[in-house]
Amino acid sequence: MSLLPYIEQIERKEHLVFEEMQQAAQLIFNEQTPKEQIAFFLTAMSAKGETAHEVAGLASVMKSHAVAVDVPEGIYIDNCGTGGDGLQSFNISTTSAFVLAGGSISVAKHGNRKVSSASGSSDVLEALGITLLPNIEQTSELLKQHGIAFLHAPNMHPKLKRIGEVRQAIGKPTIFNLVGPLTNPVPLKTQFVGINRPTFTMDYAEVLHMLGRERAIVVSGAQGMDEASLDGENTFVLLDRGDMIPFKLRAEDVGLAAQPLSAIRGGTPAENADIMRDLLKGKQSVYFDTVLLNAGIGFFAYGLAATMKEGIDMAKDSILSGRAYEKLENIVAYSQKQMQEEPVK
Questions:
Q1: Is the pTM above the cut of 0.90?
Q2: How do strand 233-240 and strand 215-220 relate by DSSP bridges?
Q3: Is the model's pLDDT at 121 over the cut of 50?
Q4: Spatial CA neighbour of 294 closest among 3, 45, 15, 81
Q5: I need a surface site. Which of 138, 216, 229, 302 has the fewest CB within 10 A?
Q6: How does residue 155 score in pLDDT terms, banded at 50, 70 and 90?
């Protein structure tokens, strides 16, 4: 089998149905498929524009190739975004993950190194002193002990290495950016996803529904930011047991001051780690308010907060009580302990 018939179909601007996309995805993950074909397929798909069925079809195959993670019973949330917005913001969703965990939510945060930003989730975690644990038992142990774990995508998806090389060569977002947040190997009933396409929020909510999420929120912020922004209008869709409810919201609607996107730019992993530590220690800033907004939405997506405003209050309490920073310290301490024990084994 070859990807060429699918490439020709896509170049005719014909969408693939779910099953066709699954067949094409199996070929993408096949080591025998030439990299050039994969690159042509991905660029043609981007030029055509992805559909909900295509995204869901690829996600289902990618997840089937992921490692199995045996996790404690519970309802887990992931707040990983698609990336690819090119806005160079600091690590908002990674910081928000600690805030959510500080509010007694179980967080299984999927992430990767930088692709289109100065510091990806995995980059800033390493700068904080957190190892990207390849050991599945350790990931499960972290979830059991501390209610939060970070799942470095290459460890969870070993078959992605070859595809990653193709994506790096392409050098711009592809369907894999959209699929990344959908392939967490931990079973998710709820999710909060930021995407860089305001016109695709309803389609993305449909994908989440197709993949079995009971409740989820999709957001696209100002200038296609893959987080909720303090600047301008945010485009949302709430998925609630099959119902998909679109709405718009500004920071001022939930009691936060509007701020330009330029105010939340990040830097190197080390610089972003400093921003994160200060924020989780309670330092008030535009970074702080941005995390309040996004973590607040996470509490609402999970169903713990009845409104986003209530979620923001929960986020503030998680930080100012010291619980969010304590989660960071716990994960760093666990990582350091594992690093010290590793040579002995």
A1: yes
A2: antiparallel
A3: yes
A4: 81
A5: 138
A6: confident
| Bind-site residues | 81, 84-85, 89, 91-94, 109-117, 121, 167, 226-227
d(CA 292, CA 272): 17
Q: Tell me the binding residues for 5-phospho-alpha-D-ribose 1-diphosphate.
A: 81, 84-85, 89, 91-94, 109-117, 121
Segment 220-268, tens digit of pLDDT? 999 999 999 999 999 999 999 999 999 999 999 999 999 999 999 999 9
**Mean local confidence (pLDDT), 298-310:** 97
Structure-block tokens of residue 181: 């947040």
**172 versus 25: which is more confidently predicted?**
25
Among the residues of the chain, which ranges form H helices? Answer: 4-11, 18-28, 35-48, 52-64, 92-102, 121-127, 136-146, 153-156, 160-170, 175-179, 201-210, 269-280, 286-302, 308-320, 323-341
Task: Please tell me whether residue 173 adopts helix, strand or coil conformation.
Answer: coil
Q: For residue 135, give Cα distances in angstroms to 45, 111, 288, 335, 344.
A: 34, 16, 32, 12, 16
- Angle, CA 142 vertex, CA 101 and CA 337 arms, to 5°: 120
Q: Helix/strand/coil (H, E, C) string of 208-266?
A: HHHCCCCEEEEEECHHHCCCCCCCCEEEEEEEECCEEEEEEEEHHHHCCCCCCHHHHEC
Q: Report the distance separating Cα 76 and Cα 160, nearest Å.
A: 24
